[in-house]
Amino acid sequence: MLKSFRRFLAVQVGAGLTLAAVGVMSAPAADTDVLATVNGLEITEGDLNIAAGEYGAQFGNLQGDQRRAALLSALIEIRLLSSEAEKAKLDQGEAFERRLAFLRQQALHTAFIDKVVNEAVTDEQVRASYDKQVADAPAVNEIRARHILVKTKEEAEAIIKQLGEGGDFEVIAKEKSTDGAAANGGDLGYFSAGQMVPEFETAAFALTPGDYSKEPVETQFGFHVIKVEDKRVQQPPAFDAVKDRVRSVLIRDKYVEEVTALRDSAEIEVKEPALKEIIDGIEKQRAGAAEEKTEEPAAAQ
Questions:
Q1: For residues 46 and 50, what is the distance between their CA atoms, to the nearest angstrom?
Q2: Geometric angle at alpha carbon 72, from 69 and 78, rounded to 5°
Q3: Which parts of the chain are coiled coil (predicted)?
Q4: What are the residue ranges spanned by the domains of the chain?
């Protein structure tokens, strides 16, 4: 089940999708509160919130007032340089107007995502999606095993004989096993089908808890003596551990839904054939992914 859930949550949030997340500031304040002035021009809390959405990731290691101060310093520099650019008439000309129009469209794009996409995904939907994934995911058995890895069959047979005479598996693993798990008494933790090499996996799953292999198990790594400690049904990840990723997937799906509807109703003509072919391919992939999502549970193998 855990493997299924990880596969479901591994879906990318979507090509070209920018989700502007305004950082939480350490001291709540009104957007109109003035934090600084630069040559008489005010910088407000609202300006700082916008900067957090645009540049917050650059100050990810800073918290609280340290982060706020870094953002405010960046805004001061922006005001200083933009004023100098205006004096030099860099805000004039067709190229600047095109860039300004693009930035306006980009801001509107972000506003649409915040209002129509992000706000549409509720906490209740996130929980319901998680519950559905857990319910739809097939039960997966897993085992906890230890092993002792040696280079030759003769060494493995000698260890099996030693175990038959009452030897302690963990102690022998620490003394004689040649892989990294030796320090932990050969403990490999829990694993499910498909996570180990086939020869090892087949032998391990055939054992009952408390039993060890009576014949050496050969793999590409050498010869193993395996002991199974426990068998259980794999548990899903806790909701709190994955809820943010579940939300991201739902936001991705909502974004694709909105964009697809707008594309279908719009008149779009790509003039350059090579670009058109690529874009058409992307749209086919998007449509195929949406169809697959509808036909199969997202957490299915």
A1: 6
A2: 145
A3: none
A4: 16-120, 141-233
